[in-house]
Structures are given as C-alpha cells and as structure tokens.
Amino acid sequence: MILQKLYKIMVIDLMLAFYNGHCKEFKGEHHEKM
Q: Tell me: the pLDDT tens digits for 7-21?
C-alpha cells in the first residue's frame, strides 16, 4: 500500500512538472511573438 501511494505521488509529480514546463515554454513563445 505504501509503495503504491509513493508511486502515485511520484507519477503525479512528474506529470505536473512536465505540464508546468510545457506551459512555461508555450507562454514564453507566445509572449515573444507578441
């Protein structure tokens, strides 16, 4: 049970990090165009 919880937290953390990084890159490109 504990390992499953840690695995879920790690996966969610990686997904959030990837999502935030992608959003920052998208916003940066959009800002440069403007």
A: 999 999 999 888 887
